[in-house]
Amino acid sequence: MKELAQILLVDDEPNNREALSLLLTGAGYQVDAVGTGEEAIRILQRTPYAIVVTDLFLPGVSGIDILKKVKSEAPYTNVILITGNASAETAVEAMKEGAFDYITKPVDFEKLKILVAKAMEKSQLVAENLYLRQQLRGKYRFDNIIGHSPAMQQVFARLEKIVHTDSTILILGESGTGKELVAKAIHFNGNRRNKPFIAINCGAIPSELLESELFGHVRGAFTGAVADKPGKFEMANGGTVFLDEIGTMPERLQMKLLRVLQEQEIERVGGSRRIKLDVRVISATNADLEKDVKEGRFREDLYYRLNVIPIQLPPLRERREDIPLLVRHFLQKTCNEMERPLMSVTPEAMRALENHDWPGNVRELENVIERTVALTDGELIDYPDLPPAIAGKASLDLAADAPSLRLPDEGLDMPAFIADIERSLIRDALDRADGVKARAAALLGINRTTLVEKIKRLELEDRAP
Q1: Is the pTM value of this prediction over 0.70?
Q2: pLDDT of 3-51, one tens digit each?
Q3: How many other β-carbons are positioned within 10 Å of the β-carbon of residue 279?
Q4: Fewer CB atoms < 10 Å away: N or C end of the chain?
């Protein structure tokens, strides 16, 4: 924000210009002073300012002309006008054009310092807000949605087509596939990116409270409604409302949501005033809404209103080729957050991750990587470091690939033979796990309690600290 913490002073009277410049410099501000509107326009084209303090009546380019130029090209800059004419007409015109405030001559220096301090605070807040929005746009760029698989390329192609439209979108996909991430990417890359993105999980709020959360309420609408409160739709005006788990919405609210989509207006709970809105709606569900419509659990007319443009997100098990990319992404993210050196994954561990079915999809994978990084020593993740449900399946897959055994012609003592195999495998697992029973159990695809019992039964306690 440093480059914005400065003031451009415009006054055609040298004595006034010098006095105001000394005043503001003495208050700790960096001040550039010019004597004409033309000079002010030229310097504003190459230098950003937090505040412009300008005389209203200048020869040639006036203070109002400067104000209009600033507001069209640098909306974060606040303009304070100085005028010798304190008429209401002048003040109203200045405010209509976006002036922060105005002050009359002779200038009250203390009042001017107060105005400048308030204007500086507002400019910095606006600049910080713009910076944060730029960061959000970077965070939710389409290329931050990870995936090179054909299924994800189809998703990207559709996103590119719809991002600059205002069409209602329905995102379909299993839990954990990244539906909210896609909704945010649509918003922050589209025409509404400088307006609010408001998300609400329809399944996480009791049905009796959901209407108030969505549409707001007026004072006295119900017990506990001690003041008027805007809902999520009002808060998102001009921007996007994301309705997650839309399939859980009660039928009574489905009808009200349908009217909102049709009329672009709402009524607060307990109120009668209609409030016009300009909101884009993106909804998401992991349910089969077509089936719910056929079985009467979801309104058909609302379904078609929501499903103008559908986006189907594939489950992770249907795009396994994206797992290495996702693993590297989550490793980098988690290691940065934990301030650890970047870790890597052995080929065996990566195969185990690729072969897992991931019922929780990308969210489950992210959680597994976070947990594994936290619990693994060193900078290399092997498959014994993975959770037992993943490492154990990998061990079983390896066993399935082993050559089959044949019974010798002379026969064998099967219990003793199996016990010898168990001893050998347990010793090998304990050696590879440096004696850590939990890791050895994961290697063998059994839980730790079972391993401890086998160690006792096979008299291997001396091998297992």
Answers
A1: no
A2: 444 899 999 999 989 999 998 988 888 899 999 999 999 998 888 888 9
A3: 23
A4: C
Helix (H) / strand (E) containing 419: helix 414-432
- Are 254 and 168 part of one and the same domain? yes
Considering the domain architecture, whether residues 78 and 111 belong to the same structural domain is answered as: yes
Q: Can you read off the two tokens belonging to residue 463?
A: 């091998």
Domain of residue 218 covers 143-314
HSE-up (13 A, CA, CB side) for residue 183: 28
Q: What's the pLDDT tens digit per position in 415-450?
A: 777 777 888 888 888 888 888 888 888 888 788 888
Query: Are the C-beta atoms of 12 and 35 separated by less than 8 Å?
Result: yes
Burial of 371 (0-12, 13-18, 19+ CB in 10 A): middle
CA angle 425, 428, 429 (to 5 degrees): 85
186 close to 159: Cβ distance less than 8 angstroms: yes
User: Cα–Cα distance between 204 and 223 in angstroms, integer?
Assistant: 21
Pairing of strands 274-276, 78-83: unpaired
Q: Does 299 share its domain with 376?
A: no
The amino acid at residue 367 is N
CB 144 within 8 A of CB 330: no
Pairing mode of beta strands 380-381, 274-276 = unpaired
The amino acid at 139:
K
Closest CA to 73 of 51, 105, 44, 99: 44
DSSP string spanning 80-95?
A: EEEES---HHHHHHHH
CA 102 to CA 91: how far, in whole Å? Answer: 7
Q: Are residues 310 and 322 in the same domain?
A: no
Q: What's the first-to-final CA gap in the chain, in angstroms?
A: 59
